[in-house]
TrEMBL record:
Keyword Ligase found: no
Classification via PROSITE patterns: KH_TYPE_1
Native organism: Faecalicatena orotica
Superkingdom of the organism of origin: Bacteria
Name of the protein in its database record: Transcription termination/antitermination protein NusA
UniProt keyword list: Coiled coil, Cytoplasm, RNA-binding, Transcription, Transcription antitermination, Transcription regulation, Transcription termination
Subcellular location: Cytoplasm
Protein role: Participates in both transcription termination and antitermination.
Pfam short name (any one): KH_NusA_1st
Residue ranges of domain NusA-like second KH in the record: 280-343
Sequence similarity: Belongs to the NusA family.
Transcription factor NusA first KH domain segment(s): 198-275
GO molecular function, one term: DNA-binding transcription factor activity
CDD domains, per the entry: KH-II_NusA_rpt1, KH-II_NusA_rpt2, S1_NusA
Length: 403
């Protein structure tokens, strides 16, 4: 038994995950290559290797002839009879070859062939390992800044976080651990090239899968995500179990689950809404936290017209149009937002609409006299308690569902 070779192959298999069978094939090929360098040909070389004990033998098959013209492939009858007296003219004799007799060049070439095979297998193992993690998240350690790019160590391979895939404003320190989304893994002659991202919307989805058990097991589905990295994300969720609240599951007790994701994203705001197959309801939810009066959606044109109260217009549009922009990406609809006044002027609402609303509001404001009164009708459970010195005219009423 070739114990030294067997131990070396076992160590390679354990440390680098390179199979013994692959390395034995590489050793056989290296021996054949050495024979070709030493004898000038390898067509008649046979390598026999025991994969259990790692014992091997190398033979040159030569034809027994009366007169030898090519010593590499022929042997005289006299010499053949020394090996086996039963050999006759025309038989094939197996001549043992001692690998120790190979020259320095042949030995070096065989060594280089084995080392090259080890490097190829290492790259293949690393590629396969990270190819399985494509479209998933990994934890990396920040190494250094390379210009505006960041070198990230992922364990057995390095990745480059390019400037385009970085969140503006995020600054990392060496040895800091961060979560990254693996966008693509390419196999190159120099090893796997791994493209990672901190801005991809799927990063948020994978983080919620890690934090929320209901998302991981499929009870709650993340139907759509719209993200402006570093600022805000809108996410629409749906529950396959009527007893599970999808939004509540993602938020967690006292916001523990969503806060864990927010902390990983360095304070990025996350809006979680209920998904609906009704496009009008979905658009209304997507514009949250703004209140909506009406939504008219055209599924064929993928366009929607939304009317909001005058005081909610800026909230619905958002800072620099962010809320409306994210809602459009989330729903896939082009959204046109108008205020009540704009809708009346364009004829989308009746002219007496404001008067009707004012009359309805008057119905909620009767009888504020002795410091506090009910802000809603008698059948409502909500009570507004105003301090005695508060100016009742400045009270902002909050509507409850169904009122």
């Amino acid at each position: 038994m070739n114990t030294e070779l067997l131990e070396a192959l076992n160590i390679l298999e354990q440390e680098k995950n390179i199979s013994k069978e692959t390395m034995m094939d590489a050793i056989e090929n290296s021996l054949i290559s050495a024979c070709k360098n030493h004898f000038g040909t390898s067509d008649n070389i046979k390598v026999i290797m025991d994969h259990e004990t790692c014992d091997y033998a190398v033979y040159a098959e030569k034809e027994v002839v009366e007169e030898v013209f090519d010593p590499a492939i022929e042997i005289s009858l006299e010499d053949a009879e020394k090996l086996d007296s039963a050999l006759q003219i025309g038989d094939v004799a197996q001549i043992p070859i001692e690998s120790k007799s190979f020259g320095r060049i042949a030995t070096q070439n065989a060594k280089n062939l084995i080392l090259q095979k080890i490097r190829e297998e290492e790259r293949k193992v690393v590629y396969d390992q990270y190819f399985e993690k494509e479209k998933d998240i990994v934890t990396g350690i920040v190494q250094r800044y390379v210009g505006r790019n960041i070198s990230i160590n992922l364990g057995r391979a390095d990745a480059m976080l390019t400037e385009n895939e970085q969140v503006k404003g995020e600054v990392f320190k060496p040895t800091e651990r961060i979560k990254l989304y693996v966008v693509e893994v390419k196999n190159t002659p120099k090893g796997p090239k791994i493209l990672v991202s901190r801005t991809h919307p799927e990063l948020v989805k994978r983080l919620f899968e890690a934090e929320v058990a209901e998302v991981k097991d499929g009870t709650v589905e993340i139907k759509s995500i719209a993200r402006e990295a570093g600022s805000r994300t809108k996410m629409a969720v749906w529950s396959n179990d009527e007893n599970v609240d999808p939004v509540g599951a993602c938020v967690g007790m006292n916001g523990s689950r969503v806060n864990a994701v927010v902390n990983e994203l360095r304070g990025e705001k996350i809006d979680i809404i209920n998904w609906s197959d009704n496009p009008a309801l979905l658009i209304e939810n997507a514009l949250s936290p703004a209140k909506v009066i009406s939504v008219m959606a055209d599924p064929d044109e993928k366009a929607a017209s939304v009317i909001v109260p005058d005081y909610q217009l800026s909230l619905a549009i958002g800072k620099e149009g962010q809320n409306a922009r994210l809602a459009a990406r989330l729903t896939g609809y082009k959204i046109d937002i108008k205020s009540e006044t704009q809708a009346i002027e364009s004829g989308e609402l009746p002219e007496d609409y404001m008067e009707q609303m004012a009359m309805m509001e008057d119905g909620y404001s009767d009888g504020f006299e002795n410091g506090y009164e009910e802000a809603y009708p008698q059948d409502s459970e909500e009570i507004y308690e105003a301090p005695e010195d508060e100016n009742i005219e400045e009270i902002e009423f909050i509507e409850t569902d169904g009122e």
